[in-house]
Amino acid sequence: ANYGFCEIASQEETERALQLDGMLVLGVPVSIKRPNDAVSPLGMIGGVPVGMQMPGQGGMLALPSAQVSATSPVIRIDEILKVDDKTTDDDYNDVKEDMAEGCGAHGKLVSVAIVKPHHAQGNATLKPGDVFLQCSTTDDATKIMRAMGHRKYDGRQIHMTSFEESKFMSEIKPLF
């Protein structure tokens, strides 16, 4: 929903933060406002008169969420498939096809690889069910992460991170 909330430690810091409204972050203007119910016309915050807050409690600000930016053309998706002894090759292939189709609609993909148990043996950084997307460019990776990172797959939140390209090329890609 492109918004978030932040609690500020003091009224003074809240006022300073409100002055940042409209600042550009990654080329997008940030809107910094108080929630509609934070300050009532009677000078109350959260039902407590201003100046009567508990120590350490400040005002609250509504902030839009920051846009994700990839740092590499390779994306790692953590455990998109929950692997167990009943997982079949068709299950792995279905996930690869879904990722190629869904993610490929938002950026150009070079390859899609899904980690199977034999890939993860002896490699502590790999987990069965992880997916690696090799994109044409870092910009394509950013587009995919922004479009797909908030979605769910098989009822679970997708967790996407950039993965170091040189490490992918030397350690991961040769496994596939």
Automatic annotation (TrEMBL):
A Gene Ontology cellular-component term: ribonucleoprotein complex
Keywords carried by this UniProt record: mRNA processing, mRNA splicing, Ribonucleoprotein, RNA-binding
Q: Spell out the Gene3D superfamilies in the cross-references.
A: 3.30.70.330
Q: Which organism is it from?
A: Durusdinium trenchii
Protein name according to UniProt: RRM domain-containing protein
What is the top-level taxon of the source organism? Answer: Eukaryota
